[in-house]
Design goal:
The complex is a heterodimer.
Chain A: H1 19-46, H2 50-65, H3 74-106, H4 114-129, H5 132-143, H6 147-171, H7 175-183, H8 188-222, H9 230-239, H10 243-271
Helix pairs in contact in A: 3-4, 3-6, 3-8, 3-10, 4-6, 5-6, 6-8, 7-8, 8-10, 9-10
Chain B: H1 2-12, H2 14-43, H3 47-52, H4 54-64, H5 69-79, H6 84-112, H7 120-135, H8 138-149, H9 153-177, H10 181-189, H11 194-228, H12 236-245, H13 249-277
Classes of the chains: A mainly alpha, B mainly alpha.
Chain lengths: 272, 278
């Protein structure tokens, strides 16, 4: 029998044949109907043309089959991929450093004034809400096309992302050592240096490494809006339909992203 | 005699180890420093010039933010209603991309979960395919699909679908690998077929997590679909790109603010639902 006020769930918690079972079946049917209606509405709005998709499929097959890497373009691709890596590295570092003050503001156990910590959280939320690519477009408009715009875009977006993670990490700190130091008469700076920093630093570095993986993926596409890196070559190759060059770039991207992901995951495992 | 055998390891052996550790740190530090020096050179990133040229940045902000009340009224009454279509299209793209991805991910989940995959070779291939698909960002898929299917939302939906399939398969196969093996073993011992095991032991444990992952991917797709238009794949991003290329910065500002609000609202609602699910 269902307890009154028990929260309904999607899982098959209630056996069939009971009132609760019937209710959960009804609920699931309602959700299914809602989802189907949603898809119907969306498909009608976009005017999905199955014939057009059908015509596109051979084109896709042709494109992928003509993507055999072009050895001549391997070096330019590797060189600009180096720039992409550099954009990701500097952008992540910029974000990882600048996120610390925002996170300190946002952590509820460090800044005791609720108004300030709410402000810090909202600040990081607001920064996070702008996708890297919109920031990229914005900085390209301000500083002109090039790696600087891409680096700034990644840096600013990372502040928002990392500040939230940092704040969560700081809020989960074990208060024991800090209390012990306070009881022994340590100053605020000493407490931070000897009780909080040793606990949070490895996790901060792990979060920044994870961010680096994401930023590397983002840096690959920042070039599509003119913000430097391998995306610039890729965009030109795509507009000129030089599929061999596209294939070369994709190969380099896949290889570098896989290696960085693997290395970063190994490092993170050792850190935390 | 006894004392020498006691003191020797404690004084002699830690030192080389410590020295090796110091050397390791030194090498790591040098590599990191070299990476930064090289990166700074290739990107020509210079904080000083960025700060020196910050008037460019503030100039852009001044051009974006409407200065007078009349401009605000004009934008909100004349331009904002015209954005309804592109924004609806953005949401529709995210919905269709997520649903298509969710459907396509189901077979891939079964093949790429170690504990229910039909064969280790199949598992390896499926997992490899998934990781390969995930290394290419959704925007790159969109750019390629635009070349094949033309400019428009269909390219965007397909790009979202491919990327969502890979992400959902990865997240959910990890959930499947972490299920309680008890029910699986019990059903297998009782002679249940693979399909019965899947239906009665795996699905009930994984379904709430799968729905939660779907919502998460939907959030990601909403964010992604707002920018897919920058490469011509439909939605509000196409408007944004148009307005920026026409130097209509005030209109671009309206688009950015509305996008911001939309993403924030959808994130909030989706987070609420996910908290209830898991």
């Amino acid at each position: 029998m269902a307890r009154p006020g028990a929260r309904p769930r999607f899982s098959a918690r209630h056996p069939a044949g009971t009132i609760a079972g019937a209710a959960s079946l009804l609920q699931r049917t309602a959700i299914l109907v809602f989802l189907v209606a949603l898809c119907w509405w969306a498909a009608a709005g976009i005017q999905i043309n199955v014939q057009r998709i059908g015509r596109g499929l051979p084109a896709i097959a042709r494109i992928f089959s003509s993507m055999a890497p072009d050895a001549q373009w391997l070096w330019p691709a590797v060189e600009t991929m180096g720039q992409t890596l550099a954009i990701a590295l500097i952008g992540t570092t910029l974000g990882a450093v600048l996120a610390i003050p925002v996170a300190i503001l946002a952590a509820r156990n460090i800044v005791v004034y609720r108004a300030i910590s709410a402000l810090g959280r909202q600040l990081s939320n607001a920064i996070r809400a702008f996708p890297e690519l919109v920031l990229g477009v914005f900085f390209v408009a301000a500083y002109g096309p090039g790696a600087t715009a891409g680096t700034l875009a990644l840096g600013v977006h990372s502040i928002g992302m990392l500040a939230k993670l940092y704040a969560d990490i700081m809020e989960n700190v074990d208060p024991g050592p800090a209390e012990a130091l306070l009881a022994a008469g340590a100053g605020k700076l000493q407490v931070f240096r000897f009780a909080i920093l040793p606990q949070v630093l490895p996790e901060f570095v792990a979060a920044a490494l994870y961010r680096f993986e994401i930023n590397l993926r983002a840096a690959n596409v920042l070039g599509l809006v003119g913000a430097g890196g391998i995306g610039v070559i890729l965009l030109q190759a795509l507009t000129l339909r030089r599929w061999g060059v596209v294939g070369t770039c994709l190969l380099v991207i896949v290889a570098v992203v896989s290696v960085v992901d693997y290395g970063s995951a190994c490092l993170r495992k050792r850190l935390v | 005699m006894a004392s020498s055998s006691y003191t020797q390891p404690s004084t002699a052996s830690p030192l080389p180890q410590l020295r090796r550790l110091k050397l390791l740190w030194l090498v790591a530090g040098l590599i990191v420093a070299a990476a930064y020096a090289l990166s700074a050179r290739t990107t020509e990133f210079n904080l000083w010039t960025i700060i020196r040229d910050s008037d460019l940045f503030f100039q852009l902000i001044r051009e974006m933010v409407p200065a007078t009340k009349e401009r605000w009224v004009h934008l909100l009454t004349n331009y904002l209603p015209r954005l309804r279509g592109p924004f609806l299209q953005t949401a529709q793209m995210a919905i269709l991309g997520t649903v298509t991805g969710a459907v396509l991910s189901i077979p891939l989940i079964v093949l790429s979960s170690r504990n229910i995959s039909p064969h280790p070779a199949v598992y390896t291939v499926a997992k490899g395919l998934m990781n390969l698909l995930r290394t290419i960002p959704d925007l790159l898929y969109a750019a390629i699909f635009v070349a094949a299917f033309g400019v428009g939302p269909i390219s965007g939906i397909l790009a979202l679908a491919v990327f969502s399939t890979a992400v959902l398969a990865k997240l959910t196969s990890e959930s499947v690998e972490a299920v309680d093996p008890g029910p699986l073993e019990a059903l297998r011992a009782a002679g249940g077929t693979n399909l019965q095991i899947l239906r009665h032991a795996v699905v009930p444990q994984v379904a709430p997590l799968f729905w939660s992952h779907c919502l998460y991917v939907f959030e990601v797709n909403i964010r992604a679909s707002t920018v897919l238009g920058l490469v011509g794949a439909g939605g509000i991003g196409q408007q944004l790109q148009l307005m920026l290329s026409l130097f209509q910065y005030e209109n671009a500002f309206v688009i950015i603010v509305v996008t911001f609000l939309l993403v924030a609202v959808i994130d909030g609602v989706s987070n609420r639902i996910r908290e209830r699910l898991v």
